[in-house]
Amino acid sequence: MKAISRYFDFAMHNTTFRQEILAGITTFLTMAYIIIINPAILEAAGIPKGPSMTATILSAAFGTLIMGVYAKRPFAIAPYMGENAFIAYTVVKVLGYPWQTALGAIFIAGVIFTLLTVFKIRSWLAAAIPVSLKYSFAVGIGLFLTFIGLNETGIVSLGVAGAPVCLGRMSDAPVLLSILGFFIISWLIVKRIHGAVIIGILAVTIISIMTGIAPLPKDIVSMPPDVTPIFMQLDIIGALSPKAFPIVLIIFVMAFVDTIGTVIGLSARAGLLDENGDLPEIEKPMMADALANLFAPVFGTTTTGAYIESATGIEEGGRTGFTALVVAALFLFALFFAPLAAAVPAHAYGTALIVIGIFMIAPIAKIDFGDYTELIPAFLTIVLISFTYNIGVGMTAGLISYPLLKTITGRHKEVPYALWLLAAMSLSFYIFYPYR
Predict the structure, then answer these.
(1) Domain map of the chain by residue range?
(2) Residue of 116, 85, 77 lying closest to 102 (CA atoms)
C-alpha cells in the first residue's frame, strides 16, 4: 500500500486511498451509461449490439488503465458521445460508408495522434491555447454536463419550433426523484460529507427500484458477449482513399479538440494546472488517449478520449491515477456485471451531472471580463458548447475567434504561431463537416 501511495504521490496531492476509491466509483457510476448507450447508437451503423458492448467496455478499461498507470491522472477514458453518433448517423447512414471503413478512419486518426504525441507536437499546440480559453473549456463543459443532466432527469425536455427546450413534466415520478437526489447531494456537499455524489446516486437508485420506478436487473452476473464478429474488422485501405479524406480529417479534429479541451478543463477543476495555466507533462494523458484510439477501432468501437464525467470523481476528491485505476477495474468487472451497472437509472446519474455544473462554472471568475478580445472568444466557447450540444463546435469557435479578434484589433503579436495552426485545423472542421 505504501508503494502505491508513493507511486501516485498521495501526499503531494493531499489524498488518501479512501478518497481515490470513492472518486473512482463515482466516476464509474456517472459514466456507466456508456456501456448501454454506445452499443445502442452504433447498432444504427450495423455494428451488432452484444459485441459492441464488450468492445466498449474493453476500450474504456484499456484507455483508463493507461491513463492511471502511465499518465497518473484521475481521468477516465471511454468512447466519446457525439463522435459515435457522427459515425453512426452521418458517416454510415447519410454518407453511405461501411462501418468497417469508419473504424479504419478512426484508426488512422489514432496513428496521427500517436505520432504527434511522440514528437510532442500535441503538447506544443496545447500550450498555445490562451488561459481564458482553457478556463472557458471548463465552464462550457460544466454547463454541457448540466444540460445533459437536465435532459436525462426529465427536468428539461424537447420543446417545439421557436422554443427548442421546455420544462419537463414536473409531476412525473423520475423527475421528482431527481429533484430529491439533487437536494440530497447538495445537503451532503454543504455538510462537507465525503461521497456526496455517490450517496445521492445510490439513494435515488434504491428508492427507484423499491417503488417500481426502475426495474430490478434481470440478472446480476452474465458472461460477456463474444467480440469476434467486430474484432479486427476495420477497413484501413478504404479509409485511405481520397474520397474518405474529409471523414478522417473531421474525426481527427473533433477528437483532437475534444481531448485537449476536456483534459485542460478537468485539470483546471482539479487544481492540476501550473501558474501559467498549463498541465505539466500533458503529453502523458495525450499518449494514453492516442493509444486508446488505436485500441478502440481494432476491437470494434469508435473514437475514445478523456471523459467529462471524470469531473464527478474529481469533485469527490480524486487527484491521482489511482482514481483511474479504480474506474478501469470497475469497467472490467462490468464485463460480467453489466446488468447491475445498467440498473442505475438516468434520473439518478443525471442528477449528479447537474451538480457538477455548479463546481465547473467556478473558473469563469478567472477570465478577464475587462478585455473583450479575451471575453468574446471565451463567451462563444461556453455558449456554443452548450447550445449546439457539441463540445467540438464550441472549442473550435473559440480557437478561431481568439486569433482573429487579436489580429483585427492590432494585437496579433499576442497570438502564438501554434494557435494559428489550431485555428486552421478548427476552420477545416467547419469546411468539411457534413451538415446534413
Answers:
(1) 2-357+368-432
(2) 85
